[in-house]
């Protein structure tokens, strides 16, 4: 049985059907899974509250579908191949049977510690197999996982733990990243000083780093495993029970806990995986993302495992021990489908081509891109040098909130155009809106990208604050889910997503709100006011530019800049460090006191030729000052 689209004509037919009869369409995709009880109703929705329910009344467990369902047919097939940071070390492979027993064992450890359905579990770990076990172990017992990316600081972890009132944390002693051995458990300890909901911390021994274990709170995984059985009955979940929370940044200060539920997410992540990449049973599939982001959730763990695929999990970085690391792994595991981010491609294309050509990349069939707009130069380099000028590139546009890929070519079937995500997947109804919220019908236009009909993988709420979800995504344009992105539709109807139209910056495919970074900078006692904007960056896509006003008794400027940088590291993490910090006397403001970000962005870009009319500003002289002081 294959439910893969086999041609562009078939895509067009599927698309038609998905629009005309969405319920019948998605029901036909959901049927292949193991349901303990079939749903009563495929879809109920309105975008006003908003309320979106898929497969209502259906009962299932997603891990039964990721694991148990495959045991008879592909129990010995590799499910996860783990490629460690150390290029000399052996990879580790877990068959579906082995992964099943690892997950069941960890699930029992959690159950034995009192974790139950609906409890929130924070997972803060490096890219080691136990991270995948932990995610699936939570899902096995109906606990809600909230994975926090390893690059976030103690403060950022604490915020996320507190927002979701997590009762349990899973972590490791330390982690490796390139040639570095870094702390992990210490960061959790630091975070927990600010949290009072966490009872227990499960620690995986990995790097043998010396860590403090807090009595009655912390316990080692290897100790707990000894008394845990490998037999774990899955918790039977409602299709609309929460599967996970994943925090993401928006235009306002505090990150939001995007909530995904069980049934719809399952159907959507599998369907999109299989069709976009045109996955076939024997394929070796590798997505280079980190599980701390949505791409890792949907396309390292859930999508591929639901499809019964072999998925590679890579602990290391693309440039260590040398910039050929990705291609060495492709060669070593004979990777067929390779999915990465434009920032990685841009970083690698500046290096000698030898790093590519010395590896045998003949196994590759499909290349993917995700996370940010891919510029034409990077697209062409990827296609020519990695894709031998013949492989399809799927430029996949989607978001944490969408749960899975929304606009993308289907490998080998859809037309391709550099920088274009092309057509919506079946079931996805994108529109371009003008500033008044009217749909723009014609092609060859730009507009605000929104979606007018629900799809099974979409977010259901933001954790603990449904009103915030409504305000953020469903209020700007009534009757639509608003993405926050601007897009162009070419004369043929192909979509190109240009980038954010709100105060979100995309740095190396990681999302940060400008307000979030400003708040961190404001924590410095000498900072009076800060304004953060994005600027074009050759490798990261966007860089972070901070303009900071400091108090009169300000210390030495170089020292202050150092301390501001540390403030960001402390409150958010190294991933959000500003590329440039400029100390200014004043920020250009409107008469009503609003910071003119448009001008700040222009100056950060180095484009001061056309700043528009600045005479209406409260303080036009501030503009020249920031131009003169530009870093
Ligand atoms: C951007 C990552 C252009 C976009 C899966 C979106 C893209 C944000 C693409 C979501 C793409 C992602 N082309 N832009 N192919 N993919 N984006 O939540 O601005 O980390 O809104 O999800 O990344 O980032 P997030």
Can you describe this structure?
By secondary structure, the protein is α/β, with parallel strands linked by helices. It is 32% helix and 24% strand. It is built from 19 helices and 30 strands. The protein has an eight-stranded mixed beta sheet, with helices on both faces. A seven-stranded mixed beta sheet has the order 5-4-17-16-18-19-20, sandwiched between helices. Helix 4 packs across helix 5 (129-141). The protein is globular, with a radius of gyration of 24 Å. The N and C termini lie far apart (59 Å). The relative contact order is 0.10.
Secondary-structure blueprint of this entry?
Elements: H1 8-20, H2 22-30, E1 41-46, E2 51-56, E3 59-60, H3 62-74, E4 78-83, E5 92-95, H4 96-112, E6 120-124, H5 129-141, E7 144-147, H6 154-164, E8 168-172, E9 174-177, E10 180-183, H7 185-192, E11 200-204, E12 218-220, H8 221-225, E13 237-238, E14 242-248, E15 256-261, H9 262-276, E16 284-287, H10 294-306, E17 310-314, H11 325-333, E18 337-340, H12 342-349, H13 354-357, E19 366-370, H14 376-386, E20 393-396, E21 430-433, E22 445-451, E23 461-462, H15 466-474, E24 481-489, E25 495-500, E26 504-507, E27 510-513, H16 514-522, E28 527-537, E29 541-550, H17 557-571, E30 580-584, H18 597-605, H19 621-628
Parallel strand pairs: 4-17, 6-7, 6-8, 7-14, 8-11, 11-12, 16-17, 16-18, 18-19, 19-20, 29-30
Antiparallel strand pairs: 1-2, 3-13, 4-5, 9-10, 14-15, 15-23, 21-22, 22-24, 24-25, 26-27, 28-29
The structure holds 5'-O-[(S)-ethoxy(hydroxy)phosphoryl]adenosine.
């Amino acid at each position: 049985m294959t439910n893969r689209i086999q041609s562009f004509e078939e895509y067009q037919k599927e698309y038609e059907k998905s629009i005309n009869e969405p319920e019948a369409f998605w029901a036909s995709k959901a049927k292949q899974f193991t349901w303990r009880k079939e749903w009563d109703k495929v879809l109920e929705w309105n975008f006003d509250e908003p309320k979106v329910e898929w497969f209502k009344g259906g009962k299932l467990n997603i891990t039964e579908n990721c694991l148990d369902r495959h045991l008879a047919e592909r129990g010995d097939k590799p499910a996860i191949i783990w490629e460690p940071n150390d290029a000399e070390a052996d990879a580790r492979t877990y068959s579906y049977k082995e992964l099943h027993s690892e997950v069941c064992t960890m699930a029992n450890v959690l159950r034995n510690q009192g974790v139950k359905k609906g409890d929130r579990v924070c997972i803060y770990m490096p890219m080691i197999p136990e991270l995948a076990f932990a995610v699936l172990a939570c899902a096995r017992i109906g606990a809600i996982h909230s994975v926090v990316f390893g690059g976030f600081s103690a403060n950022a972890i604490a915020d996320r733990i507190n927002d979701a009132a997590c009762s349990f944390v899973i972590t490791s002693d330390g982690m490796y990243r390139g040639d570095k051995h870094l702390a992990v458990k210490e960061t959790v300890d630091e975070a927990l000083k600010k949290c009072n909901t966490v009872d227990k911390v499960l620690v995986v021994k990995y790097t043998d780093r010396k860590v403090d274990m807090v009595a009655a709170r912390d316990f080692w995984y290897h100790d707990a495993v000894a008394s845990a059985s490998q037999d774990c009955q899955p918790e039977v979940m409602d299709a609309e029970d929460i599967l996970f929370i994943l925090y993401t940044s928006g235009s306002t200060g505090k990150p939001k806990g995007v909530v995904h539920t069980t049934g719809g997410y399952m159907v959507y992540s599998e369907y999109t995986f299989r069709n976009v990449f045109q996955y076939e049973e024997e394929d070796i599939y590798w997505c280079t993302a980190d599980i701390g982001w949505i791409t890792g959730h949907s396309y390292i763990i859930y999508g591929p495992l639901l499809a019964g695929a072999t998925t590679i999990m890579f602990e290391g970085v693309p440039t260590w021990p040398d910039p050929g690391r990705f291609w060495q792994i492709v060669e070593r595991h004979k990777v067929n489908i390779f999915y990465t981010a434009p920032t990685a491609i841009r970083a690698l294309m500046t290096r000698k081509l030898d790093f590519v050509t010395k590896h045998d990349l003949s196994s590759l069939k499909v290349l993917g891109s995700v996370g940010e707009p891919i510029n034409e130069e990077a697209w062409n380099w990827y296609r020519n040098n990695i894709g031998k000028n013949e492989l399809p590139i799927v430029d996949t546009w989607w978001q944490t909130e969408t749960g899975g890929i929304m606009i993308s070519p289907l490998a080998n079937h859809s037309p391709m155009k550099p920088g274009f995500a092309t057509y919506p997947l079946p079931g996805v109804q994108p529109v371009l809106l003008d500033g008044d919220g009217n749909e723009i019908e014609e092609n060859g236009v730009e507009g605000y990208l929104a979606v007018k009909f629900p799809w099974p993988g979409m977010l259901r709420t933001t954790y603990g604050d449904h009103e915030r979800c409504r305000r953020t995504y469903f209020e700007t344009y009534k009757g639509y889910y608003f993405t926050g992105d601007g897009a162009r539709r070419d004369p043929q109807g192909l979509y190109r997503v240009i980038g954010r139209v709100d105060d979100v910056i995309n740095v190396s495919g990681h999302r940060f709100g400008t307000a979030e970074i400003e708040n961190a900078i404001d924590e410095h006692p000498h900072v009076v006011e800060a304004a953060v904007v994005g600027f074009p960056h050759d490798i990261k896509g966007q860089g972070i530019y901070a303009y900071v006003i400091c108090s009169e008794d300000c210390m030495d400027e170089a020292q202050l800049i150092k301390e501001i940088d540390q403030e960001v590291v402390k409150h958010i993490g190294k991933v959000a460090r500003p590329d440039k910090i400029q100390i200014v006397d004043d920020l250009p403001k409107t008469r009503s006191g609003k910071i003119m970000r448009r001008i700040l962005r222009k100056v950060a870009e180095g484009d001061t030729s056309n700043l528009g009319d600045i005479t209406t500003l409260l303080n036009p002289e501030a503009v020249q000052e920031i131009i003169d002081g530009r870093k």
